[in-house]
Amino acid sequence: MAATLAALCFMPSAAQAEETRITIGTASSAGVYHLAGRTLCRMLTTPCTAQTSDGSAENLANVREGAVSVALAQSDLQHYAVYGEEGFNEVGPDENLRSLFSLHGEPFTLVVRRDSGIRQFDDLHQRAVNVGNPGSGQRGTLMTLLDAKQWTLDDFSLANDLPADQQSLELCHGNVDAMVYTVGHPNDSVAQAIRLCDAMLVDVEGEEIERLVDELPYFTPATIPAGIYADDQPAVKTFGVRATLVASAQTDDELIYRLVSAVFDDLETLKAYHPAFDELTPELMISEGLSAPLHDGALRYYREQGWISDDEAIEEEVAEEAVEDSSEDNE
C-alpha cells in the first residue's frame, strides 16, 4: 500500500502531462505532411499527436496563437509569416516564430487529364483547375505564381477549392481539367489520379519561374524523378519549396530539444519512412528554407553537435533582432 501511494505521488498530474504533450500541426491526411507528423511522433517518447489541418497557413496561425506546439509549413509561407507579407499582411510579422529544421523538398506539381490538351502552365487559361483549399500551401504557392504571371483566379474558367484528399477524384470525374499540388513525391493523391484516370504530370517552366527562383530565397528549381508513378513517366521540371518544422519562441526549450535530438540521433529511421526523406542530411536540414531564427532548444542541440559555431549563433541573435525590427516597422 505504501509503495502504491509513493508511486502515485511521483505520477505526473493530468495538467503536467498536457504541458509536456506535443501537438504537431500537419495538413490533409492524404499528404506527406501528415505522414511526417506521425513519423516524428513515433520517434518521440513524449506524448505526441499529429493533427490534421487545412495546411501551412492554418498551421502558422495556430503556432502564433499557441494552439499547437509545433507545425509543418512550406518555406515560402514561413517567410511570409515572419515578415507579415502576402496572406499575413493583416496580422503582421510574427516575431515569435522560430525554425527547428527543414525536411523534404516539395515540387510545385501540375497534374492534368491526358485528354485535356494541357501541356504547359499557360494552357490552364480559361480551364477548370483545383487550386486547393484556402489556407493550404499549394494555393499559396499558386497565388505567388499567378502574381508573377499577372494572372488572377478569374483567368481560370473554374477555380475549385477542394482539399488535397479530394482533388484526384474531382479530376477523374471530369469536373476539373487540372489540379496543382505542392508536395513531396511520391504522393498518394497524385498516384491515384494517374492510376484511375490516366492523368499525367506537366513541366512548369518559363521566364516567370526563373525570376521567382532568382529573386525569392525560399524557391528552388525542382525535378520530379522519372518513373516514380509509371514506367513511361518522364522526369518533370518545375520549381518548389521545402517543408519546414516551426514553433513559437514560447514553446518550451526542453521540449524542442528532445524533439530535435530524437530526429537527428536516429535520422536513418526518419529517412526510412518515405522516399521523399531519402536525401535528408543535417547540413541541409538546418539551413535550407529557414527564414525564421532557430528556436533556442534546436540551437542548443546544433551547437552541441558542432554544426553551428558561436559566430553563427550570434548571427541567429541578429536574425531575431531583424525580425523584431520588422515587426516594429509594421506597427
Keywords:
331 residues, alpha/beta, ten-stranded mixed beta sheet, 14 helices, 19% strand, disordered N terminus
Summarize the structure in words.
Helix content is 42%, strand content 19%. It contains 14 helices and ten strands. The protein has 331 residues and is α/β, with parallel strands linked by helices. Strands 1, 2, 3, 4, 5, 6, 7, 8, 9 and 10 form a ten-stranded mixed sheet that branches. It has helices at residues 2-10, 14-20, 32-43, 56-65, 75-83, 137-149, 164-172, 188-197, 207-215, 253-264, 267-271, 282-285, 296-304, 310-329, and strands at 22-25, 48-51, 70-74, 97-113, 128-130, 158-160, 178-182, 199-202, 220-224, 236-248. Strand 1 (22-25), helix 3 (32-43) and strand 2 form a beta-alpha-beta unit. Mean pLDDT is 90; it is low at 1-18.
